[in-house]
Amino acid sequence: MRHLLNPVFPPFAPIVLFLAGGILAGRFLPGLPVWYAIAAALFFSLTFFIFFCRSPIVLACCIFAFAQGFISMADIQAPDISKPHISQFSDGSIYEITGKIDSFARHYPGKTKLVLVCKTIEQLGKPPMDTTGRINLNVYLKNYASADNTMLRFGDMIRFSGPLNPIRNFSNPGGYDYKLHMQYREIFGSTYAKLTRIDILEQKQHTVWVAFFRQIEAVRDRFCTLIKSRARAVAQRIEENQALSDGVYASAQVSAKAHHAGALLGALVTGKKELISPELRDLFARAGASHILAISGLHLSIVAFGAFRIFYFLAGRSQRLSTTGAARKLAGILTLGPLFVYALFAGFSPSTQRAFIMTAVFMAAILAERENDGFNTLSIAGILILVVNAAALFSISFQLSFSALIFILLGFRVVRQNNWNWQGRNMIVRLLSGALLVTLFAGIGTFPLIAKYFNMVSHVQVVSNLLFVPVMGFICLPLGFLSLLVMSVFPGLAGGILDLGIEILTLCLYAAEWLAGFEFSWSRIITFTWTQVGLIYLFLAGIYLVAAKRKRAGAWLVIFTLVSGTVSAGMAVKSRFFPGRLAITVLDVGQGNAAVVHTSSGQVLLIDGGGFSGLSGFDTGRYIVAPFLWRNQIKTLDGVILSHPDSDHMNGLVFIMDNFTVRKWFWNHDKNNTKAFHQLVSLAEKKQVPQYFPGPEPVLFDFKGTKLTLFPGETGKKRVSRNNNSLVCRIRYQSFSMLFPGDIDETRENSLGKAGHLSLQSDIMLCPHHGSKGSGSKIFLDKVRPESVIVSCGYNNRYGFPHPEALARYKTRGTRIFRTDLHGAVTITTTGENHHIKTNREL
Predict the structure, then answer these.
(1) Are 539 and 565 in contact (CB under 8 A)?
(2) How far apart are CA 492 and CA 169, in angstroms?
(3) Which one-letter DSSP state was computed for residue 346?
(4) Could you give the 3-state DSSP secondary structure of residue 761?
(5) 191: helix, coil or strand?
């Protein structure tokens, strides 16, 4: 049988594809018997053998790769956890835990995060037990600045007491599977303790490997401390100069830029991503240059290039090595040493490991004079990465890196095939045109994935990368490396070098703000489904075939994807704007409230946004509410209702107000002197969002058939708590209704219940104040008469919500109870007559 297609794959490309296929089968079909998987591998391999490549060796490797991927991923999906494993004790109880620190410390304001390998566990009144497994440990610091002298380090054996909690997801439709992500990292629980309550146990001697890691961590911390001090010095100098000309306010702004620049330089060199604030990440994401902020192949390539040039210069001094050509190969082999050490220095995170493997493989290809065989080299790197860690296939950084490199290779192949003279004669023109094409091809290749994962498109990406990659990658990063190398011997010189790097990065921050500040420089987009992502890549494949002079096949592929894409887009438009039913989703946001109302006419209301207070950096608006809206093709909110400005209802709305179009904002004019509250009000004023403050009487708003009634708080009376002054909302669609009472307590409940003129009867009610002890009073429930009640609360929360007495009152009435901590998000759908309740997690 003749080939239907000419062989198009380099030898290793089908092997990595079959390896990925086996991993996907192990991920989504973990219960499939191994022999079935091998049979599937044999079938697909034979098909490939018949139609594409008749190499018996490649055929055998493909079968083996599929089986290897399936078995590896199945083991990760269903790990063999023995009885004394730490996951068996992760139930929220207090334990005394002994374990060894197995990670570099990640320092945040007020707390430090670590990974702990557990050794023993003990509960009060019971004997200690040996245990195994890894957990996350949050160490809270009473005074963060004074904690440097007692900093916990890699390899320390410690003992402390704390609650051992399981790894749990926020269970929302299509939400991020954090539990599975932690399982990929072999982490099966989390706990916390104060630094003053942690005992560091004496150890006889550390192994050579542990001692090496401890020394690396000490150097990292010392370098970051030096950067902080130099950033303060630069900021102070800027403040003094600016204050004389532009005033105190302007000098403070420039000073903040210097501090951010110092943190950015520290993160670029050490890989300590926690140094970069969310605001800084957002800035570079909008400018289309966020990839520069993480340790990647760019950073390791710079290290490899510098080390190679040094070793090659030294080896070239030997006439024998130079004449035989061994100097180049020897320099390449020696370069692997500092490359590996830097990967360890940067924390050797999974993304750094992948970057190390890719850089090492590409460098080996260059030394073997096979640099033109890019697809083969990329395939070998993929095979090594996936053999080391099969779960890497589901890593965003892995997918982005390989899609970028594949499109760069394909793009330059098209350029060569068409004999486009892009290089020119001038060296500067060649460099600029080459950088432009690399950025363009990489941007095209990663666009579908960036749209799916980050819901953002930067329209200035090409310009940003042409500016920031050479300046930050080839000037600031080498300056950071140089200061690190001379820090111990010439601290003054290291400080001067850092000052220069910080000042250059400060200018980069101004440039990023300028680029991202244009009205159309970036935009938020809805979340693509995997079907839509696949259609986009098929469309790009059709364009590639046309450009590669296979016009007929390419044209048919383009037509197919355009037709399919039109159908997919039409279905999405109908679901978004013409649903024909009312859908209300009470989201699982932990200890807080957030609900999305999608009316039958396509309008959307958001009632509260959830939120955490204290030292928690988790933003429910950014990571829960916004992704849910984008997954449902929602970019505009017709109304946002803030019941009251407490953190568990308000903090998530800050991100929403900043990243969505909000047509109306309803709130009760209560204030809270917090950063989140001031940000929310400032954003609403900046974006000129119409604000509505209901008066003393109930007010009705009509959203094309869906009625929203707001019952204001007890305004005009003696000062009441923010909870009791909550805006109470009632949604009514034909004969269906649902009540959102905020955090009102028994006093307000009774007041509403006794008001004869108020219509509160509802089919479903969101439980007042998360099910506190006094909520759900008799007179209030007699007035509302709900068939079902939804309790929005956090798992094992410190308040003990919902209180058993509150639950008992609902059970006595025969009211169905749904809880977000147990059932996950609760979705109610109705056509106006009957309604259906669906939970995201089945118990």
Answers:
(1) yes
(2) 48
(3) T
(4) coil
(5) strand
SS3 839: strand
Query: Which residue intervals of 278-395 are DSSP H helices?
Result: 278-286, 297-315, 319-324, 326-345, 350-367, 374-388
- Kind of pairing, strands 699-703 and 665-667? unpaired
Tally of helices (H runs) and strands (E runs) in the chain: 28, 27
Neighbours of 517 (CB within 10 A): 12
Q: Which residues contact 402 (CB under 8 A, 6 or more apart)?
A: 378, 382
The one-character DSSP state at 167 is: P
CA 648 to each of CA 460, 538, 756: distance values in angstroms, whole numbers, following the listed order: 36, 44, 31
Locate the DSSP E strands across 151-269: 157-163, 187-194, 199-201
Q: Tell me the one-letter amino acid at 763.
A: D
* DSSP SS3 for 309: helix
Q: Say what the pLDDT of residue 137 is.
A: 95
Rg of the chain in Å (alpha carbons): 30
What pLDDT does 372 receive?
Answer: 66
| 539 SS3 class | helix
Instruction: Look at residue 8 in the predicted model and tell me its pLDDT.
Output: 44
Burial of 572 (0-12, 13-18, 19+ CB in 10 A): middle
- CB burial of residue 133 (10 Å; 0-12, 13-18, 19+): buried
Structure tokens at 67: 């089986």
This prediction has a pTM of: 0.90
- The residue ranges of DSSP E strands in 207-280, in sequence order, are none
Q: Which residues of the chain have pLDDT under 70?
A: 1-9, 32, 34-35, 37-38, 41-42, 44-55, 142-150, 240-254, 371-372, 420-428, 615, 714-720, 843
CA atoms of 312 and 326, how far apart (whole Å)? 10
Contact, 608 vs 649, CB < 8 A? yes
809 contacts 781 by C-beta, under 8 angstroms: yes
The dihedral region occupied by 713, where left means phi > 0, alpha psi between -120 and 50, and beta the remainder, is: beta
Give ∠ CA 837-455-27 in degrees, rounded to 5. 65
Structure tokens at 817: 């109870």
**Separation of alpha carbons 491 and 506, rounded Å:** 22
Beta-carbon contacts of 435 under 8 Å, excluding residues fewer than 6 positions away, are 465, 466, 469, 470
735 φ/ψ sector (left φ>0, alpha ψ -120 to 50, else beta): alpha
DSSP one-letter code for 509: H
Please tell me the predicted confidence (pLDDT) of residue 420.
Answer: 65
Q: Which of 719, 724, 718 is closest to 777 using CA atoms?
A: 724
Q: Are 255 and 235 in contact (CB under 8 A)?
A: yes
Q: What is the pLDDT of residue 740?
A: 97
- Identify the pLDDT of residue 51: 57
Both tokens of 352, joined, read: 């750094």
The separation between CA 319 and the C-alpha centre of its own chain, rounded to angstroms, equals 53
**Burial environment of residue 8 by CB neighbours within 10 A (0 to 12, 13 to 18, 19 or more):** exposed
Helix (H) or strand (E) holding 732: strand 728-733
Q: Name the helix (H) or strand (E) containing 788.
A: strand 788-791
In 3-state terms the chain splits into helix, strand, coil percentages (rounded to 5) of 55, 15, 30
Which tokens sit at 720?
A: 């009441």
Cα Dmax for the chain: 102
Spatial contact of 593 and 627, defined as CB atoms under 8 Å apart: no
- Dist. CA 775–CA 759, nearest whole Å: 19
Distance (Å, whole) CA 292 – CA 477: 10
Q: How far apart are the first and last CA of the chain?
A: 55
Task: Give Cβ neighbours of residue 53 (< 8 Å, ≥ 6 apart).
Answer: 7, 9, 14
Provide the token pair at 369.
């004079």
Task: Please report, as a single letter, which amino acid is at residue 69.
Answer: G
What is the token pair recorded at 639?
């109304």
